[in-house]
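Page 42, continued from yesterday. The earlier attempt failed because a stray header line got pasted into the input along with the sequence. Redoing it now with the clean sequence only.
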Amino acid sequence: MPRTAVFGGSFNPIHYGHLLLADDLLEILTLDRVLFVPAKHPPHKDPSRLAAPEERLAMVRLATEGHRGFEVSDMELARPGPSFTVDTLAALARPGQALFLVVGSETFLDLLAWRDPRRVARLAQLVIVPRVGSPFDTESEAAQKVLREIGVEGGFTTVDGGRVPDRGVIVSRAASMPISASELRRRVREGRSLAFRLPPVVADYIRARGLYREPPA
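This time it went through. Structure tokens are written below.
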């Protein structure tokens, strides 16, 4: 059975934290691919702080080129209106395919604000990757409330390798790095180095296109 993890986001810009996490998930979840899906208009983000959708897509393609387990989709850019994850998962769902959705722990706690969160959880098995230095408490009232409201049975399961459960919400300790896109944008505005934080080909693209030089309005 093909196994795909959907990794959506603004990728503004994509960096080594994203790439390391995705590569680790390939092994931990025994995936066939990680599908990067840049959002055209994330409904919960200020568009004035984002590079153009086409530029963010181009950076993701540059960063992932040549990695056998990475693929990139432009489906959210081709679809009109805001980028809702439930629509993306519905378009990707196929009989006989295992579909996973990668989310951060803070994103999971905000899941009830998404469009049709119960359907999101039916279409794909959720995989939570806690932020570096921010442990995710699966027993907290907030986490348990989301679990109940989205109707997922099986609770939370921590997976670091070995057998991957086919039910419940997975909490993965996939490797990540303390790099933030907002910090990278600030470094660009201040003319500081981007070395060792994102692929050189992405840094070259940012410089060539003059991205992130001005503070957001």
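Notes: Strands lie at 3-9, 33-38, 70-72, 98-104, 125-129, 156-159, 169-172.
Reminder to self: strip header lines before submitting.
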